[in-house]
Amino acid sequence: EDEQIVAEIMGRRFFPDHITHKTWEGFHFAGHEIRITEATDCYGAVVWPSALVLCYFLETNSKQCNLVDKNVIEIGAGTGLVSIVASLLGAFVTATDLPELLGNLQHNVLRNTKQKCKHQPCVKELSWGIDLEKNFPRSSCHFDYIMAADVVYHHPFLDELLLTFDHLCKNDTVILWAMKFRLEKENRFVDRFQVLFDLEMISNFPSLNITLYKAMRKGRMKA
């Protein structure tokens, strides 16, 4: 079953049939052909399998997870694939990442959503743990969903990432987080995450070493 679903997920990806001057990959989600420009010399400008897993879930669970008119933020949006799919499914999306990635992110988001979405998504800088209250004040920022794909890997900002989740998450916010398990240090982040949030495994794909989680602030999952 794992291999069958993984094959279907990966089957959503297609590649250019001729050489182009820009590196790009194509994807089929939410009834659209999505073309993503990439940069192979930067982690944040490549589409990782966790993003495909999350996009597949959003599309195939659109009734259970209805994004129409919902306020969604993606942290570590990278190339913007998840944000684009959420937008095509009717959400008002804020796609965020580091300043050096915003140009490519904006290009991909605009190219794939213009005149195709109910709400035009916006792209905004978010450096984890920095100026959170200034840029995303708790009093005025309310997100129905926080989405994250492959944000936990070998980087020195895991504390700041947890702080960012904590700042953006209200009592009724749902976190959808796809994680590829790699090294023990990064894997321990899951234990730290569960101090603040109730965590539920939605899907597990051993062949990809990826797990998709749903989370809410501690004590709120059942409520």
TrEMBL record:
Q: Name one GO biological process term.
A: methylation
Coiled-coil positions are none
The GO molecular function terms of this record are: methyltransferase activity
* Keyword line: Methyltransferase, S-adenosyl-L-methionine, Transferase
In which domain of life is the source organism classified?
Eukaryota
UniProt xrefs under InterPro entries? Methyltransf_16, SAM-dependent_MTases_sf
Protein known as: MT21E methyltransferase
Source taxonomy lineage? Eukaryota, Metazoa, Chordata, Craniata, Vertebrata
